[in-house]
Amino acid sequence: MTSASPSPKNAVPTTNTSFLQRRLEAIWYHAAPGKQLLYPLEMLYKTLASLDRWLKKKQAVQHNVPVIVVGNISVGGTGKTPLVVYLCELLINAGYSPGIITRGYGGNSSQWPVFVDTNSDPADVGDEPVLMAQRTKVPVVAGPNRNDDIEILLKRHDVNVVISDDGLQHYRLARDIEIAVIDQARGLGNKHCLPAGPLREPAERLNRCDFVVINELNRASEYSMQLQVQQICRLNSDFQQPLSNWNEKTVHAVTGIGNPSRFFLLLRRLELDLIEHRFPDHHQFIESDIVFDDDLPVFMTEKDAVKCRAFAADQHWYVPVSAQLTERFSQGLLTRLEKIVAKKSVDQNI
User: Closest Cα partner for 149 from 76, 35, 67?
Assistant: First the structure.
């Protein structure tokens, strides 16, 4: 078994996250001192956020198709993208034709919204949109204005359900179902709003969501989600092999996601020894970021892999994950969606 904090001999774990980010996370999740100094800024943030929410709700745009928003109330990764992929598979199997809208964060396109396909450049449209297009094969549109995204999506494709990746706080988008995702390990931190805590909105916001999904290691919650992994894939080819083949071996673990600790924990649970390399969320990788002065393999998330394939070598691997959710969640969502579709059909015929 791997140790709690494996560190191979002569290996120096690296980090590229900022000092400010590390300091804030220590306050948010580990009770480090300094929270009280941020209370005035928290009150200002909550006041401005409340005013912004009120103004945007007055401008909310309704759509003729059901809109499902998958988001969170905290900063950092919680597992939204695997859940979006799961929802697409669930809806397709139930006879729906879903499409995805997403922010395209980190993309440098000169024109938005933009359609995303499996060959889109993550530098232009963002890493998560490309990953979702590759995994789901459904229409994906990226852009900062969710209503514009839906408009162009419906013009070009026969979509009858829209899934918004993130956007819980995008109140100009009227939504029919809200799904909030919480990472069990981090929870809601100290339950304060930015910058004193990690919350974008107060914890009471969860009471207004239709489903609160807990991303947890072992199934315990009513709407529980586990991230499953079986295979590891080479970036520069189609070669795959069981991840169990790597038990107790030392690897470089590289990631630029919102919650890197979750990825590292996943690998440690699979009995790997890690040399950790943390980069900021949505980091635009270059070759030197994933090349090291040894012959050890390099593991990364699937989200990071879409940005590294162009310069990957045989030692570079990614770890695809798939979400597993409770039957209660799946059936509850489909039942609620069926009622919404029926109501919208009646409203359109009046």
Answer: 67
Distance CA 70, CA 221 (A): 18
Whether residues 204 and 268 share a domain: the answer is: no
Mean pLDDT score, 303-308: 96
Q: Are 91 and 136 in contact (CB under 8 A)?
A: no
Look at residue 16 in the predicted model and tell me its pLDDT. Answer: 57
Contacts of 295 (CB under 8 A, 6+ apart): 315
CB burial string 171-207: b at 16+ within 10 A, e below:
bebebbbbbbbbbbebebbbebbbbbbbbbbbbebee
Within this chain, do residues 297 and 333 fall inside the same structural domain, yes or no?
no
Instruction: Residue 142: name the closest of 162, 158, 119, 126 by CA.
Output: 126
Does residue 194 share a domain with residue 166?
yes
Number of domains into which the chain is organized: 2
Report the predicted TM-score, pTM, of the whole model to 2 decimal places. 0.91
Is 80 exceeded by the pLDDT of residue 33? yes
Peptide bond preceding 195: is omega within 30 degrees of 0, i.e. cis? yes
Structural domain for 242, as ranges? 230-320
